[in-house]
Amino acid sequence: MLTAAVAGASGYAGGELLRLLLGHPDFQVGPVAAGGKAGQSLGQVHPQLVSLADRVFEPTSAEVLGGADVIFLALPHGESAALAAALPKASKIVDLGADFRLRDRASWEQFYDVPHAGTWVYGLPELPGARAQIKGAARIANPGCFPTAVALALSPLLVDGLIECQDIVVTAASGTSGAGRKAAEHLLASEVMGSMSAYKVGGAHQHTPEMEQSLSASAGSSVRLSFTPMLAPMSRGILASCSATAVSSANAAGIRESLVWAYANEPFVQVLPAGQWPQTASVSATNAAQLQVAFDEHAGRVIVVCAIDNLGKGAAGQALQNANIMLGIPETWGLTSDGVAP
To answer: How far apart are alpha carbons 16 and 14 in whole angstroms?
Structure first.
């Protein structure tokens, strides 16, 4: 058995990681670390994880975490870099935060208040050439939740040259768990339930440069997009509507075939049958992504809708998928595309 350590285990993504690790045939849960909740029992914080209820959160340190076969960092943005630098150089790490995702220092400094720490291999396995890079890496930058949905929706169309690179518009709704577990007035149930709102509009969201970075790599040229995030009255899930101008030679059949061909052998990405649209409920508690596409011939635009679980394919599920690839374990172990209903 391999040992997995989790830093930031008291948060939503950390708790989801622990749940997934408990069902993994090749991993055992090693050290579980937290910041302010160090010393508390895990059962107090994650009562749903009954089999770990008697474990105690340890302090977040390299000494506590460094002996594990793989270390997951589920820390707030800007906090992973210092811990990663203190861990043994041979440590295999998957960072769920943003610290190592961006290549461009200026883009990082525009949205974050700490120095740029460098760039690790970007862990979105379904992107062209990504698996080989992940397999050969020891340190992986797990993508953000919004960028995962957007890249899965648009990357094949950019690879195939079916949409324009400079006219991409994304509107995406997220559940409240995407903001983390820290108490905030705007995330109170009384504020969120029965209401939907936009936030960080007009290029202000920190995931914008990450989206442009991954899409530009797929396109082979610079991509520019406008992103409007929405807060939805649900605890988990992302529904992203991604729209772009189609090239003049594009047609509905070719656009759909681009997505179908790209994901034909992907265990976690499904292009739904014509007429069936993605729903966040269908992917809840899974590592799945569901896609559907339409070609608006009147407007000359392609619309791709993607649903993922922000804590699954958007965080913990994808982190485990990356760890599986990095360690040579079957990619699907510990993960599922089958959801729950109702």
So the answer is: 5
| 9, 17 Cβ separation under 8 angstroms | yes
Architecture of domain 2-119: 3-Layer(aba) Sandwich (3.40)
- What pTM was computed for the model? 0.96
140 CB-near residues (< 8 Å, 6+ apart) = 93, 94, 95, 120, 121, 122, 123, 134, 319, 322, 323, 326
Domain boundaries, given as residue ranges, for the chain:
2-119, 146-310
Average pLDDT, the chain: 95
**Which burial class, exposed, middle or buried, applies to 181 when counting CB atoms under 10 A from its CB (0-12, 13-18, 19+)?**
middle
Residues labelled as active-site residues: 145
Give the pLDDT confidence score for residue 184 in this predicted structure: 72
Superfamily of 146-310 according to CATH:
Dihydrodipicolinate Reductase; domain 2 (3.30.360.10)
Q: Is the pLDDT of residue 183 over 70?
A: no
pLDDT of residue 127: 97
Q: Return d(Cα 9, Cα 46) in angstroms, integer.
A: 9
Backbone angles phi, psi at 279, to 5 degrees: -135, 140
